[in-house]
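Most newcomers find our protein records easier to grasp once they have seen one. A record pairs a protein's sequence with a compact description of its fold. An example says more than a description, so a record of this kind follows:
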Amino acid sequence: MKLIGSLTSPYVRKVRIVFSEKKVEVDLVLDNVWAANTQINATNPLGKVPCLVLDDGEVIYDSRVIAEYADTLSPVSKLIPDNGRERASVKTWEALADGIMDAGILARLEATLRPPEQQSQMWMDRQMGKVQAALNQMAAQLGENPWCHGNQMTLADIAVGCALGYLLFRFPHIAWQSQHPNLDQLYQKLMQRSSFIDSIPPAA
């Protein structure tokens, strides 16, 4: 299998961590979707990463779909409950974490792709407001629990860890670690795992 992605995408990092935790080998093929010579459109018409190319040539895209598929490939480290309310809880955590990344990326693109005179501060403030609201919700839901859901690491924790790592990478001025020490405690625990260490994005 080939995973098309970049080293800085938090969505790519999420699925790389899932594959690592599942002990499933996948070849990472780097592609910059913003470059003129990007090849991503040949496999994903949406022009987004990550994109997983299976051995038979079938293509799977969207990090949530890839992560869910990867969880079926090995009995090691079951990351998503099979059904019911527990499954919905883990997937909701993932949606919340992905929402932080979605909003952060929209704010960053506004600030980096548009010339200053065309940038909308209202738009950027709106996106960063979503980030803060999601962080507040995460911290409240996590409380004093060791993991986001249940008594072991799940996809919920991986998604949250990638969202928090993205904020440290692209928005280091956001003081979420001091504002939400329980989230920081979770993040530091995750950063002891080789899957997280090996997928740290390179310095910008």
In short: The chain is about 50% helix and 5% strand. Residues 84-113 form the longest helix (30 residues).
